[in-house]
Automatic annotation (TrEMBL):
Name of the featured protein: Polysaccharide deacetylase family protein
InterPro entries xref list: Glyco_hydro/deAcase_b/a-brl, NODB_dom
GO biological process per UniProt: carbohydrate metabolic process
Lineage: Bacteria, Bacillati, Chloroflexota, Caldilineae, Caldilineales
GO molecular function, one term: hydrolase activity, acting on carbon-nitrogen (but not peptide) bonds
Short name of one Pfam family: Polysacc_deac_1
Domain NodB homology: 10-156
């Protein structure tokens, strides 16, 4: 039995078009009896979140959606660690920029500095939304070993940022890309206990990235294949969406949501949940029956 989780990234970050994107997506999920975990940037670009975004996030929470922090400022893709795949495949300049700024950026990755950022994010969530965060997501999947120590010290036990598959992004590569099923082999496919005993809930895939609607039927089929496979490996499966990706083609986004919902509905015992619910119930911790590998260089 697998609990499937819809997550939406980059809330709080961007203009009115993206505020509308979050509202349309959460309204559609609600019309299907579904809730999502919204990863929102507490202080985008190091300034307070706009009144428009704050209102939208409060409304989403009142409608039953789960709010958790996406970093603190998301001013770049190096907030909590060096650049990571698949962000580096989407933005190849991430690595070269990091290399050029290495001396500066590496100074960020101390336990004390990272803890301060995490605790500031937690304080904003508590003050603005009445939420005590349980799960954290580092922007762009960029993480480091000190980051996990900082999470533990700050009192957060869960992270969700490692990818099982990045094939949902292959279509943006030169020549169209091969978006057939292709999973990594360096991490477990289920939640796992990682550095400082933080539970990592890996991301299955993303099917609504920019321009994916141009190959909508392929992404729907890829999602079905991924759902079948993850059901054999894990009691928890995390699906990723972005506010800007959804806004690129709502028709495709809603088609994917319905296709996933219908496919999950055919699986005995399968259900939908939020990461907050799974953390609060203990189900996320119980799902982490394996340890993660020591693969981070920093």
């Amino acid at each position: 039995m697998t609990a499937f989780v819809w997550t939406i990234d980059d809330a709080g970050w961007g203009d009115s078009v993206l505020v509308e994107s979050l509202g349309k997506t959460t309204d559609f999920l609600g019309s299907r009896g579904l809730a999502s975990t919204i990863f929102a940037v507490p202080k985008p670009w190091d300034v307070p979140v706009s009144a428009e975004w704050k209102e939208a996030l409060i409304a989403a929470r009142r409608a039953g959606h789960d709010l958790q922090p996406l970093g603190l400022t998301h001013s770049d893709c190096y907030e909590f660690g060096p650049p990571a795949w698949p962000a580096t495949s989407l933005l190849p300049t991430l690595q070269s920029e990091f290399d050029e700024r290495r001396e500066e950026l590496m100074q960020r990755y101390t336990v004390d500095k990272l803890r301060d950022r995490i605790e500031e994010a937690m304080e904003i969530f508590s003050h603005d939304y009445g939420v005590k965060p349980a799960v954290f997501r580092a922007p762009c999947g960029a993480i480091s070993k000190p980051f996990f120590t900082a999470l533990r010290v700050a009192g957060i036990g869960y992270h969700s940022g490692m990818f099982i598959s990045g094939s949902g992004y292959a279509h943006v590569q030169e020549g169209g890309g091969d978006n057939s099923q292709n999973w990594v082999d360096n991490i477990p496919y289920r939640p796992f206990r990682w550095y400082d005993d933080i539970v990592e809930a890996p991301i299955l895939n993303e099917y609504t990235w920019h321009e994916s609607g141009q190959r909508s039927h392929e992404f729907v089929e890829l999602a079905r294949q991924d759902l079948d496979r993850i059901s054999e490996h894990s009691p928890v499966a995390v699906i990723l969406m972005h506010t800007h990706g959804n806004a690129d083609d709502f028709e495709h986004t809603f088609r994917v949501i319905d296709a996933v919902s219908e496919h999950v509905g055919r699986k005995p015992g399968a259900s939908f949940a939020t990461l907050g619910e799974l953390a609060a119930s203990g189900a996320l911790a119980e799902a982490a029956t394996v340890d993660g590998p020591d693969i981070l260089a920093v």
